[in-house]
Design brief:
Layout lengths: L1 H6 L8 H7 L4 H12 L3 H19 L4 H7 L5 H12 L3 H7 L9
Length: 107
């Protein structure tokens, strides 16, 4: 399952249902097993994975926040920024700024 998430991390619509179907389980059973094994629900795990990928890109990439959000699998910058701040305590723009990669005001 982890490999599937890695392969499809840029797919905006990676869902619990699709992933459960990939391993031939019902979504409810997959969800229960996933949480038991990983200690997190599927969507939290996926968002953590995407935020970590975004953190790396924010440090090494000059792409806009919108481009990074889509590249790591979020549907848009607004939700990406909300999730990123919730998980890291700072906005993506502030994270990038504090690491010395400030961009133009369009971020």
């Amino acid at each position: 399952i982890g490999q599937r998430i890695k392969r499809l991390r840029t797919q905006n619509k990676l869902t619990l249902e699709e992933t459960a179907a990939f391993v031939y389980l019902s979504p409810a059973y997959f969800s229960r097993i996933f949480k038991d094994e990983m200690g997190l629900n599927f969507s939290t795990y996926l968002n953590q994975y995407r935020v970590e990928a975004a953190r790396k890109r924010l440090l090494n990439d000059t792409a806009s926040l919108s481009e990074i959000a889509v590249a790591v699998g979020f549907e848009g910058q607004s939700y990406f920024s909300k999730v990123f701040k919730k998980m890291t305590g700072v906005t993506p723009g502030k994270y990038r700024e504090s690491r010395g990669l400030a961009r133009t005001p369009e971020d």
